[in-house]
Amino acid sequence: MTADALSSRPFVRGWLVVGVALFGISTGPAAFGLASMGLVSSPLAAEFGWSMSQISGAVSLMMLATAACMPIAGKMVDKWGPRRVLLPSILVLAATFLLAPFIRNYAQFLAFYIAIGTVAVGTNSVAYMRILSSWFDRRRGLAIGVAGSGTGLGFAYVPLLSAALVAQFGWRGCYIGLGCILLFVTLPLVFFIMKETPQDVGLAVDGGIPSETAQPALGGSSLSEALRSRDFWVLLAVFVGLAFALYGLMPHLVPLLASRGMGEAAAASIASLFGLAAFGGRLLIGFLLDKFDARRIALIFFSLSAIGLFALTLSLPYWAFVVAAILLGGSLGAEVDMLAYLISRYFGLKAFSQIFSVMFSAVLMAMGTAPLIFGIVFDRTGSYSSILALCAPICLVAIGLVLLLRPYGAKARGAALSST
User: Fold this and answer.
1) Which domain holds residue 340?
2) pLDDT (tens digit per residue) in 276-302
3) For residue 247, what is the domain's CATH number?
4) Which terminus of the chain has fewer Cβ atoms in its 10 Å neighbourhood, N or C?
């Protein structure tokens, strides 16, 4: 069979890797650690007498610990390879959940969530994105978008699963169930299916046939070289600003709408649309990245964010808030997926994990502090108007900064992997 005929066949193995990454990310700390919190918080408060601020404070510590340790994980991935970091981290995360039922005091509860953010930090998206960037070039945007939607998938099924486990077995049974999924489903899937490069299974990038003399080349910039690049700091400013605006809004969307006189059921339905739009937005953005210049895609979706945030500052009918939620949720998909894609194009794969983890660490800091700042502003002013009035211009600034990004040049879509 000729190379052309083989290259035209469906890239089954590569998309199987994407599917495992999708599921793996859905079982990561973001979904399992955060989405289950709402279901175990009441039983924990009832048993130990902890306040909701004490329980939610553990999640904040987890996010801050993740932000601090993410660059270390990125360096380990580039030095040792994604699998050598990912597999032990999944095992540690599973063990952490399985040991959670032995919690007897608040210090142990804090240690549980800090462990998720430190020793299990390798289960976050860094290793998965590094593997996908090795498997795909022409369809890299779609692959990253599909896998990145795993976070939204996790936030969709983990609450339902946690509710069933808590109802049947209590909060201890919930943590044991989550740990068993990691140990008996995620770990075997990653071990048997997720190979680091297509060359490991006799394929080339995008499902082609590797030539007998070809060797996989990982060109690109080192972390120190990236830090001296204008594009690095532009991307950092853009995505940190967007993370602050969008993730600060997420936990406050329902109370914000309620403060406008909207009923709880209606506000909750709009919040649900926000999450569904985020899931769909990731898939759409991933598809578009393979077709068009990523800078143009960024301009469009960041503009939608600005429109949605501006709409929330006004007194509008129900349908207008529905549209605003869809615009904001759809643009939320630009956060990690587009960042990973742009880093792979601007800086290559040589130190991809280190560069991505440094930027993502800063994004996590914005994610972790923004909800607190939103809450402080509301407590002091009695409304969200002033903080929303700040966030809409942040999106406009992000639009302006995107214009400063240089073209890919030789790193355009479909270029040889050694060029990227």
Assistant:
1) 223-411
2) 777 788 788 888 888 888 888 888 888
3) 1.20.1250.20
4) N
